[in-house]
């Protein structure tokens, strides 16, 4: 039966494929297709992993048998019996084999997929005792996965297969697109899916500018977040359509709906092809104003996509992604230096703005470190606050960035800064880092130092900011969150997250105007910069530098090429001053 699940549209386009429903915390498992010739080897890896766990349990049982009832209560041995039983369970084994043989999933992926399917069956059980065996099943799977980590994996995963033709839907072979449906994915999880097998994503939680959504957008495949119960409503392998434009997932679509979306999908492809021709066209408005279109990147390798999209530099390198998912181990100065240098060299002489670490809130360093200890992590020890609380680590990062600036034009950008004391401390730590490099006789280049305007207090203290900084970059994602007191990652208040609120637009407009008055450069690097709804407005407010995900650059360029800033100025001032800017924007 066809039904639709509504969420929040975050990355445009249409994906049609089979659902891969992923349980929480399963994103760290590799997902790739194997070759038919590797099927036996993959089954063997699973078998070896399972046998190792069986042996481990047998060993444990032997040890327990020599202990008294105090050290080893009877329940423990009963529990191990249950685990052994689960390991022999025919449904687990045959299910895993099915995903490997029929779908060519790698062994880990096959195991977690079958685990997900069985977990659902446990959830549906009436008997509480049996329902609770789900936790045992998960433990057993976890142990197998742990053993498999030590067993050599086959050669590198082959390239992802992405077919977009609607006629694939009639084909039940393995070679069909897959869409990932999960309760939640952390930004670091999302990052793992760059170059992945998935043609689209849906998550139950998240807001439009949550960091998970931002990374999903950078993958340039259709995505919907905040779809509430999606991961419960969809079953493994269901056919689904993800409409990333309207934020809808359609489950088990009828042939008529499929035909309609197949048509839409082709239209999207045609539009992409058309925009592709603008790649080498300079971004100049009708009245001759040059506009800088920069890229936001998460990893050094993203420089390639930035150049391909025609970016004239990187306006925001979110350096925190280098620090995530490392079990608390920070990259040292050399590792960071090499990563920043790679991004700088990757941009082939174009400027790169490296933002210092912005962890905290919805960007934990490790997934198991989600900040539940603090009531309001978004208002807590985040970004520059974190760095100033860890000055040793901050100086390591500063030294690495300063060293990378020998290899090209580098700007240093400070996130979430609000107080004059923070500004002074930050600048003196930068001086300190330079002095340390001097003492070591290590070369570094000149950098311009800028601040992000993402807290209303910063937008209202421009005189101080412009006294100390060379440039400003407006982080609208956080500026909206903090101006309107709306958690950007919380889907339950997503309808109140409003870039068009007059207060937000006033802060953006004043920041741009003040920078222009003082001859300092200013850009917008929040998601507003890549949203074509706002291009004309921002141009009218005087903005000439936009930083966004590479995938959005060409669509924004098209708007720039059609704009006449002389005519937009008066209109933009009226929009900002109006009671309902969203309406004035479309009038
Ligand atoms: C912003 O807040 O607008 C921004 C660009 O930073 P981030 O999205 O990484 O918080
Ligand atoms: Mg921010």
Note the main attributes of this structure.
Enzyme I, Chain A, domain 2, 587 residues, binds phosphoenolpyruvate, alpha/beta, 45% helix, 23 helices, globular, eight-stranded parallel sheet
How would you portray this structure in words?
The chain is α/β, with parallel strands linked by helices and 587 residues long. It folds into three domains: 3-24 and 156-275, Glucose Oxidase, domain 1; 36-148, PtsI, HPr-binding domain (Enzyme I, Chain A, domain 2); 287-366 and 376-586, Phosphoenolpyruvate-binding domains (TIM Barrel), CATH 3.20.20.60. It is built from 23 helices and 16 strands. The chain has helices at 39-65, 74-87, 90-101, 107-123, 128-131, 133-149, 187-192, 211-218, 230-233, 255-276, 303-308, 333-346, 383-389, 391-404, 420-440, 456-459, 462-468, 476-484, 502-517, 535-540, 550-562, 565-577, 581-586; strands spanning 3-6, 8-11, 14-22, 178-182, 198-203, 223-225, 239-243, 248-251, 292-297, 314-318, 352-355, 410-414, 447-453, 471-474, 521-524, 545-548. A hairpin with a 4-residue loop joins strand 7 (239-243) and strand 8. The longest helix is centred in the first third of the chain and has 27 residues, at 39-65. The two termini are 40 Å apart. Bound molecules: phosphoenolpyruvate and magnesium ion. The site of magnesium ion has 5 residues, from helix 18. Magnesium ion is lined by residues 415, 454, 475, 477-478.
